[in-house]
Design a protein that fits this description.
The protein is of the alpha+beta class. The protein has helices at 37-43, 85-93; strands at 17-31, 48-64, 70-72. It has two helices and three strands; from the N terminus they run βαββα. The relative contact order is 0.22.
């Protein structure tokens, strides 16, 4: 698909398209570490500390709302024509050891 011209579904000529990114992540949390031991004593709960997020799978595509056709599309880091803040932060976090999602 050419992002330099208006996007139209090549199958049904529909103009209502959605950009989608499906991703599966594995989150790891450290339970009852020396750092969180005091929290457990104070609150009587099991504290846990975020350790890692690993991406297991990823699928990016544009989908036509009219005929439900899917067209592969990359929202990767080198795409300078798309400016979606949440996507940019999520993609960047996949390539750094300690991602921050605070704003």
């Amino acid at each position: 698909m050419d992002v330099n011209s208006p996007l139209i579904c090549p199958k049904c000529q529909g103009k209502y398209l959605e950009m989608k990114r499906e991703a599966t992540y594995l989150y790891t949390y450290k339970i009852d570490t020396p750092l969180t031991e005091d929290w457990s004593k104070e609150n009587g709960v099991w504290p846990f500390l975020f350790d890692n997020r690993e991406q297991l799978s990823n699928e990016e595509y544009i989908q036509c709302e009219g005929c439900s056709s899917k067209f592969p599309f990359s929202l990767g880091t080198d795409n300078t024509k798309i400016h979606l803040t949440i996507i940019q932060k999520a993609i960047r976090s996949d390539f750094i050891k300690e991602p921050e999602f605070w704003g």
